[in-house]
From TrEMBL:
Low complexity biased stretches: 24-51, 499-511
Domain Helicase ATP-binding: 141-316
Classification via Pfam families: DEAD (PF00270), Helicase_C (PF00271)
UniProt-listed Enzyme Commission number(s): 3.6.4.13
Organism: Plasmodium vinckei
SMART domains named among the record's database cross-references: DEXDc (SM00487), HELICc (SM00490)
Motif Q motif per record, residues: 110-138
Residue ranges constituting the DEAD-box RNA helicase Q domain according to the UniProt record: 110-138
Lineage of origin: Eukaryota, Sar, Alveolata, Apicomplexa, Aconoidasida
Official protein name in the record: RNA helicase
Length: 524
């Protein structure tokens, strides 16, 4: 246990029930201020709260005289305007940018100085050591600044948050100032509180020069601080749908000033059952708004939502493969093992790969598994904590902070954390439980290999998930990973629901095992 000696002797009591006192103020919340609300109990951001939104009547915008607003701020640089169609194609091909729809699409811009950002945006980029745009920003910034509706698809860690946040700053400062009682100008909808907080942190980091104000609204915490911030006036509201509807029904804010709407991870929101809530929210927003949708996948349900929400012909931008794919910078290793072998193999794997400054995320299927595995690892002296939907927001923040700072560099997580987490220096991802759909596999391993870095993922595949072997092989092939012959054999018979393929019985020999001290394990 050489790698974990520094952790030995810590009290395991710190893991359980970390409630008690505050570990940092909630945004805009001060316990001495007037309490405008209490905990609504929406610990899970889902739509199982009966009657949520029933008191929220749609706005008949035909009866309103809408004040015109400006949304096209793009002034094309002479060098960009002079690009030939061949040069434009070469730039897009180089960065794997594909335009799937839209008219009068601005040319891509590879230089930040030629995007046309005002000085306060350029200064914020310099202050954060950003010297060149990512592929989604190369094409996304000109589109968003042009006021066009946009649908974006890019791999995790691609810089998509800045692709919509920086144009939002420009949009906000071109509008009339907020008055007392006004709601936000920009609304960003996100599926989870982790993603909402992450977007907010990017807003804070890059709004120092512009003085743009923002806040978050999500369940699992008291509403008082959120209501206070909204009534003080914010330019940007980042919200989960359930809590936002709750606040709208209480008249804590309104969306009449919203002219820039962002749906981040739209496919995830639909997976979580938010479609009706999204539609109720959008009914409160003027129809001539600018809409930007971001989705990792493009199923029919997301396409239908895009058709309804994007009033103009949206520009559809894809970065990377047109099919679901994992990042090529992530080395993927697959282990075919039995359920009862997983915990011992996890411990052996962690002993083999862990180094002092690394961050490791271990994904599990259930909250119970997360708690059990965390306790088991801590008993071995391993610095592990867990995060899942039953954790109170205070504890979730504490856990994520300890993980980010390296105090507890092993994070056990359910899929509540599989999207949206943007934590630097995540070196390894371990799929202890294989997810129920291949999209979640891609999003999980996408926690590493971000922003141009390299990473590795290790996946335990048990016989109950052999039905996904064929799709897994496709992902491995698309991301140029070696495909184990045995996994490929399983993929041919995927869907047979057989409990165990006799080809992989523990009596067979000749397989290489990198797990120390255990027999009968298959490593590929």
């Amino acid at each position: 246990m050489r790698a974990f000696n520094s952790f030995q002797g810590r009290s395991n009591n710190n893991y359980q029930g970390r409630g008690g006192g505050s570990h940092g103020n909630h945004q805009g919340y001060n316990s001495g201020r007037k309490n405008y609300g209490n905990n609504s109990g929406y610990h899970n951001n889902n739509n199982n709260s009966g009657g949520l939104g029933k008191n929220l009547n749609p706005v008949d915008w035909a009866n309103f005289k809408l004040v015109p607003f400006e949304k096209n701020f793009y002034k094309e640089h002479d060098d960009i305007r002079r690009l030939s169609s061949k040069e434009v194609k070469e730039i897009r091909d180089k960065h794997r940018i594909t335009i799937l729809g839209g008219d009068n699409i601005p040319n891509p811009v590879e230089s930040i100085s030629k995007v046309g950002f005002p000085d306060y945006v350029l200064k914020s980029l310099r202050n954060n050591n950003i010297v060149s745009p990512t592929p989604i920003q190369i094409q996304g910034w000109p589109i968003a600044l042009s006021g066009k509706d946009m649908i974006g698809k890019a791999e995790t860690g691609s810089g998509k948050t800045l692709a919509f946040i920086l144009p939002a700053f420009v949009h906000i400062l071109a509008q009339p100032s907020l008055k007392h009682g006004d709601g936000p100008i920009v609304l960003v909808l996100a599926p989870t509180r982790e993603l909402a907080e992450q977007i907010r942190q990017e807003c804070i980091k890059f709004s120092v020069e512009s003085k743009v104000r923002n806040t978050c609204a999500y369940g699992g915490v008291p509403k008082g601080g959120q209501i206070y911030a909204l009534r003080q006036g914010v330019h940007i509201l980042i919200a989960c749908p359930g809590r936002l509807i709750d606040l709208l029904e209480q008249n804590a804010t309104n969306l009449r000033r919203v002219t820039y709407l962002v749906l981040d991870e739209a496919d995830k929101m639909l997976d979580m059952g938010f479609e009706m809530q999204i539609r109720k929210i959008v009914e409160q927003i003027r129809p001539d708004r600018q809409t930007l949708m971001w989705s990792a996948t493009w199923p029919k349900e997301v396409q239908a939502l895009a058709r309804d929400l994007c009033k103009d012909q949206p520009v559809h931008v894809n970065v990377g493969s047109l099919t679901l794919t994992a990042c090529r910078r992530i080395k993927q290793e697959i282990y075919l093992i039995e359920e009862h072998e997983k915990l011992g193999n996890l411990k052996s794997l962690l002993q083999r790969i862990f180094k002092e400054n690394d961050r490791i995320i271990v994904f599990v299927e259930t909250k119970r598994s997360a708690d059990f595995i965390t306790k088991a690892l801590r008993l071995e002296g391993m610095p592990a904590l867990c995060i899942h939907g039953d954790k109170k927001q205070e504890e979730r923040r504490w856990v994520l902070n300890d993980f980010k700072t390296g105090k507890s560099p092993i994070l056990i997580a359910t899929d509540v954390a599989s999207r949206g987490l943007d934590i630097k220096n995540v070196k390894f991802v371990i799929n202890y439980d294989f997810p129920n759909q291949i999209e979640d596999y891609v999003h999980r391993i996408g926690r590493t290999g971000r922003a141009g870095a390299h990473g590795a993922s290790f996946t335990f595949l048990t016989s109950d998930k052999y039905r996904l072997a064929k799709e897994l092989v496709k992902i491995l092939r698309e991301s140029e990973q070696p495909i184990p012959p045995q996994l490929e054999k399983i993929s041919f018979s995927a869907g047979n629901n057989q409990r165990r393929n006799p080809y992989y019985s523990s009596g067979r020999s000749g397989y290489n095992s990198n797990f120390s001290g255990r027999g009968g394990n298959r490593y590929y």
